């Protein structure tokens, strides 16, 4: 299961992302990466490369 703060590799684009939000909607499981531009991708298109690697950073950035 992909969770907030995980580092993932998005297979279709070849990009590595930090996950800001993950969940389920009517289309299935999704991830939303931190950064710009905002987007949403299918969780099935992502592979976790580092579990929980960026949770502290995301929490401190949101508290500012």
Q: Main traits of this protein?
A:
64 residues; mainly beta; five-stranded antiparallel sheet; 44% strand
What's a concise summary of this model?
With about 60 residues, this protein is mainly beta. About 10% of the residues lie in helices and about 45% in strands. It has a five-stranded antiparallel beta sheet with strand order 4-3-2-1-5, with no helix packed on it.
Question: What are the SSEs and their pairings?
Answer:
Elements: E1 7-10, E2 15-25, E3 28-33, E4 41-42, E5 46-50, H1 55-62
Antiparallel strand pairs: 1-2, 1-5, 2-3, 3-4
Structure description:
With 64 residues, the protein is mostly beta strands. The protein has one domain (7-62). 12% of the residues lie in helices and 44% in strands. Strands 4-3-2-1-5 form a five-stranded antiparallel sheet, with no helix packed on it. The radius of gyration is 11 Å and the shape is globular. The termini are far apart. The relative contact order is 0.30.
What structural class should be given to the helix and strand makeup?
mainly beta
Radius of gyration: 11 Å
Order of helices and strands: EEEEEH
Task: Give, in spatial order, the strands making up the sheet with the most strands.
Answer: 4-3-2-1-5
Shape: globular
Largest sheet, in brief, is: 5 strands, antiparallel
Q: What is the percent of helical residues?
A: 10-25%
Beta-sheet strand percentage? 35-45%
Low-confidence residue ranges: none
Number of strands: 5
* SS field, number of helical segments: 1
Q: In angstroms, what separates the terminal alpha carbons?
A: 28 Å
The overall pLDDT, averaged over residues, is 91
How many domains make up the coordinates?
Answer: 1
């Amino acid at each position: 299961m992909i969770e907030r703060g995980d580092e993932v590799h998005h297979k279709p684009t070849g990009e590595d992302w930090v996950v800001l939000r993950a969940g389920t909607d009517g289309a299935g499981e999704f991830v939303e990466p931190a950064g710009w531009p905002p987007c949403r991708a299918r969780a099935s298109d992502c592979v976790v490369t580092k579990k929980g690697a960026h949770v502290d950073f995301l929490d401190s950035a949101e508290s500012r």
